[in-house]
Each structure stands twice: as structure tokens, then as C-alpha cells.
Amino acid sequence: MGLNRYIFMCILIIIYVILGCLMDGLSIIILTIPITYPLILKIGFDPIWFGVLITVLIEMGLITPPVGVNVFVIAGVAKDVPMYSIFRGIVPFLFAMLVLIVLLLIFPGLATFLPSTMK
């Protein structure tokens, strides 16, 4: 495609966030990894780093509306708390995950440090 590999990764992150808003995490993994994994290897990213990034993105999808499976679990446990209050409470966690994704993009060694010590 002629794109910079980081621009391609940002596009992929946006796609995963949108899919996370609409689908279950396992479904996203089953549908997208056979397509994205060879592309990630071809453009030179570490597969362990990619797995960590996908895990964070899937977890982000589990708390974003409209699916937000984890939010509905919390709403089922805390029946007296309104749903809008629960969704408002996840905003700091979404920002923390976004910061983590940016840190993983800038410093990929964060995700591969411990596995690299096991060689």
C-alpha cells in the first residue's frame, strides 16, 4: 500500500476499536487475526508485541458501548446504579488504555522485555 508502518498500525488500531464497539472479543480475534497477523509480520512488527496490543484493544472493546460486556456485568451486580453512571465511570479506564496503546507504539520493548529474558 505504500504506507508507513506506523500509519498502517494506527489504521488497524482504529479498526479494532470500532470492531470492539460492535462485536465480542473472541469473534474479533477469530475473524481478523488470520488476515492481520501475516501483514504485521510482513511489515516488521514483533508478533508478541502485536499479541499484547490486540489483547489491550480487545479489553478496551469489552468496556466500550454499545456492547460493553463488562459494563453489563457490573450493571447486573450493582442493580441500584444506573447504566449511564457506570459508562461514565469507565472513561478514566478508556483513557488509561489509550495511553497504554500509545506507550506500546512508542516503546515496543515494554511488551517484549519479559519474554526476551526467557531465552
Walk me through this protein's architecture.
The protein is mainly alpha-helical. It has one domain. It is 77% helix and 0% strand. It contains 7 helices and no strands. Helix 3 runs antiparallel to helix 6. It is elongated. The protein starts with a helix and ends with a helix.
Task: Write a brief caption for the model.
By secondary structure, this protein is an all-alpha fold. 77% of the residues lie in helices and 0% in strands.
N-to-C SSE series? HHHHHHH
Shape: elongated
Q: How much helix, percentage-wise, in residues?
A: over 70%
Number of strands: 0
Assembly state of the chains shown: single chain
Determine the mean pLDDT. 90
Defining key terms:
single chain; 119 residues; mainly alpha; elongated
Strand-helix topology:
Blueprint: H1 5-22, H2 25-43, H3 47-61, H4 69-77, H5 83-89, H6 91-106, H7 109-116
Helix pairs in contact: 1-2, 1-3, 2-3, 3-6, 3-7
